[in-house]
Amino acid sequence: METTPPADLSTALPTSPQPILRHFASDNYAGMCPESWAALQQANRDHVPGYGDDAWTERARALIRQVFETDCDVHFVFNGTAANSLALSALCRSHHAVLCHQTAHIETDECAAPEFFSGGARVIALPGEQGKLAAPSIEAFVQTGRGDVHSSRPQAVSLTQATESGTVYSVEQVRAIGGVCRNLGLHLHMDGARFANAVVALGVAPRELTWQAGVDVLCFGATKNGAAVGEAVVFFNRELAREFDYKCKQAGQLASKMRFLSAPWVGLLQDGAWLRHAAHANRMAEVLEASLRALRGVEILFPRQANSVFVRLPSAVAEALRGRGWKFYDFVAQGGARLMCSWDTTEDDITHLTNDLRVALCDEDEAE
Question: Which of 41, 102, 165, 284 could tie 341 with a disulfide, CB 3.0–4.6 Å?
Answer without folding.
Answer: 284
